[in-house]
Amino acid sequence: MEQLLQHLVNGLVLGGTYALLGIGLTLIFGLMSVVNFAHGEFYTLGAYAAFAVLALAGWPFFAALAAAIAAGAVLGALCERTLLRPLRGESIDTVMLVMIGLWIAMQNTELLVWGGVARSIPHPFPTEPLTLGPLNIAPLRLFVVGAAAALIAAAWLLIQRTRLGTAMRATFQDRDTAALMGVPIGRIHTITFAFGSALAAAAGALLGPVFLAYPSMGDLASLKAFSVVILGGLGNLAGATLGGLLLGVAEELGAGYVSSGYRDAVGFVAIILVLLFRPAGLFARAERIG
Amino acid sequence: MIGRALVVASALALVTAPAWLASPYHLHVLIMAGVFAILALSLNLLLGYTGQLSLGHAAFFGIGAYTSALLALKLEWSFWLALPSAAVAAGLAGWAIGRLALKLRGAYFVLVTISFAGVISLVSINWMELTNGPLGLPGVPPPELGPWSLRTKTAYYYLVLAAAALAYLVCHRLVYSRIGRALVALRENEPLAESVGIDGTRYLVLAAVVSAALAGVAGSLYAHYTRFVSPEVFLFTYTVTMVIMVIAGGKGTLVGPVVGALLFTALPEALREAMAWQWQMLAYGVVLVVLVFFLPRGIVPAITARAARAAAGSRAMRPGAAPR
Q: For residue B67, what pLDDT is reported?
């Protein structure tokens, strides 16, 4: 029982960052119809930005998080303007190939800049775990889950409560009608991609200190983000949040009770099963295949 | 006219390659190019003719490699039985994935194929009793032909050359048959194709089975050549390399993937001195982006289009060439 609770807590910590990754990807996928295989590379970028700021410049942890978010947003906007805007209107497969190219190019740039050795990212939190009854949780992990929750709430407020968010939702529902109503589609796309990339970078900066930073860390992050999007349904923010938590818990339980070697298989199996049996996502009210 | 001369000349060059190639190292590069040509042809059947991108193609390659190596090592089967078994095993996997995943199209198909490759790769790492885990399977025996061992590079080169030629012929037969025309029809306009009675899923699954079986053959050839199989055969790098070869050479053409395979095996080897491996992969990413922007149809269609324009009006475009 205690073990189960511990797994659940660990799963929620992981799941919080998965949700961040998934929200970013579901916005980009749903709103721009871009299958962003480079999403995980922005996660890597966030981790390395945090590493540079913390370990090399010696700035505080919050500055590192802010730097990662800024780096993700700037590079995301840049990629959208140079690579995606000229291809708007091209088939989804053409754009997908470009994103695969970007993924490979970004990953190997990280490899060239930082080398293949995994880097541990320093953090200011005490390593002694906090004990809450039967549960142990490292203060860092507690911070990670809190920061992820805050960022998810911020994203939700932005989408639901601001003018910009309304424009984004309108673009998602019907691009042409939104354009006719005066929504600047081009700018919305740039902002969406920058915003999604910034969330991925934030996830990288948060999870980086928990694990390690290495150039190929984005591969699994991308696939997990896709699992979350598929679990939650395309463009579904609440679905992505729940899907992220669900995936985190399922992975933790799978690693704890089945086999730790197959931890990463949980996401793969989730993708396959959901796409085959509930292609609109777990939380869709009615089946719709688009 | 020029086309036919070119085909004869390159066939002659390939057959006599061991005689005029300076070093065994160059022959090694050609052998790998042959293995990749089979892989590129195989991926092209799906990507070029059905329009569905399999980003898990390394899984079929790896299944072929492991099947062949395990049969040869554990059951001491001859290569000549192990190779077709590898094709059958990979083909079965292709059938299962095709049946399940080809209900989906586009990005969703891509994700299912990636996930499948991910699961298979994890199995190869974790199933210690069967695969020896990350340590891999050393000592895969080289093929024997009667009293001769095909251990030398020259002999193996001819084996790979024959297999690649066979793979080309299989693709040629398939593409220029009713099936190939059905596939192209489905790629171009699926509802229209189905409305004239083409059973979409059936043809797509067939293409997936043939494609996977060919990749399995390449895997078997690779295993008995390097004589070592490890979970690295499932590396995503292999899939990316195949995709680049097909896109660069020209998807939806038969010659394109072969040209792409030769180019993208020889080029990195030629640049090996000047360029670190990471630069090379970085270049792959950039090349892919540049190709989509500036040469979306690939090298071979671009050249044939130019030649056709030069000999204006002499011959119509070949069937099966991708429209875009």
A: 94
Considering CB atoms only, which of A35, A261, A279 is closest to B122? A261
How large is the average pLDDT for residues B75-102? 90
Count structural domains, chain A: 1
What ipTM was estimated for this complex? 0.82
CA distance B43 to B162: 19
B154, B156, B162, B164 alpha-carbon torsion, rounded to 10°: -110
Name beta bridge partners: B145. Answer: B148
Report d(CA B74, CA A237) in Å as an integer.
51
Residue B313's pLDDT band, with cuts at 50, 70 and 90, is low
On whether the CB atoms of residues A81 and A16 are closer than 8 A, the answer is no
CATH number at residue A80: 1.10.3470
> Can you give the pLDDT at residue A42?
96
Per-residue pLDDT, A288: 40
Domain that holds residue A164: 2-121+131-288
Q: Is pLDDT of B324 > 50?
A: no
- Measured in angstroms, the CA of B80 and the nearest CA of chain A are apart by 34
- Confirm whether A101 is domain-assigned: yes
Q: What residues in A contact B119, CB-CB < 8 Å?
A: 265, 268-269, 272
**B145 three-state secondary structure:** strand
Chain B residues at the A interface, defined by Cβ less than 8 Å, are 51, 53, 55, 100-101, 103-104, 106-108, 110-112, 114-116, 118-119, 122, 125-126, 236, 240, 243, 247, 276, 278-279, 281-282, 284-289, 292-293, 296
- Is residue A31 in a domain? yes
Percentage of chain A surpassing pLDDT 90?
A: 34
Residue A75 within any structural domain of the chain? yes
Q: Is residue A126 part of a domain?
A: no
Q: Which residue has the higher pLDDT, B209 or B105?
A: B209
